[in-house]
Amino acid sequence: CSNKIVMEYPSSADQYGINIGQKKSEVAMLQERIEGKWIDCFARVFIKCKVGKGEAVAILSESQSRAINVQLAELALHQLGALPFHIVIPTPTQAAPVPVRSTGSSDVIQNIRPVVRALANTTMVVDCTVEGLLHAPELPEILKGGARVLMISNEHPEALERLAPNDTLEQKVKLGMKMLRGAKTMKITSRAGSDMSVNLEGAIAGGGWGWVTRPGIMSHWPGGLCLCFPASGKVNGTLVLDRGDVNLTFKRYLETPICLTIEDDYVTAIEGDGVDADLMRSYFSAWKDRDAYATSHVGWGMNQGARWDAMTMYDRKDFNGTELRAFAGNVVYSTGANEVAGRQTLGHFDLPIRNCTVELDNQAVVKNGVLQGELA
Description:
The chain contains nine helices and 20 strands.
């Protein structure tokens, strides 16, 4: 895990066909207007969620939510004969020392009791908050009340349409979850130098394929992930982020490799030359919060329709990056909140990494970035 290792690669990102400094004018600008095809798309996803005629469905949003997705959710639910109602909360004052991005840990509810009770007492919640409720502290209580929650990622509807879920993805993700839940260890290696192990004892394993049908369960659209939240002190080793891998908090393809040393869950060293490593060190250190350095979740992508190169096609405001978390064969390593390990923080990195091998109890489920066996 030395600078020598991470400096052995070509110095130009041009070989990947990526213009890291892409100007706004060079990216096609998408319009946010109601399209009939998007209403139909949302309706099809809600049908998969078994939304019934006459069912009261809460649409949770905030003042900074992407308005078109909130509107499309309402119109699609009306189309199905459901009874949508809105819970809209002003986006709270930012207390963090740096901008908060791409966390899945919305703090918008602020434990407002009438809001929590309303969400817990309905059967279906459509989550249109900016960051999403995936790691929100109020989520367990909402799910315990019997609600099922579909988090709609803060993407432009074009991406949601393109990544609408399908039955094949559901079966593949369920198989991957079964394999993960039955394993004792996960090992991640790569030619770039990664060598990280995860003791799965006490971990909570899960996954998502883009819709949810059962009470007390949450999923997100776009879907296509198998992952685990390890128990405390279970993650150790080296993780090398190579050129072309992604820092989704910054919405940035890496131009220079970064080597992370992880000891008992915590990133203890960030090695690498160039602005990518500097940015990561700077953002980590701004939190003054040790748990921001800790492992949140680890897993791999299952969605054959999702693309690694998709970020080049969107203006940053149109893109939240769930697609890059889910593209088939990638490894997603994330730092930040981990309820299983008893850690809560808004500091968060989602790091999709290509060309890795993932082994569960010495059986490869991903090899050099390609899904294996029945998962393929």
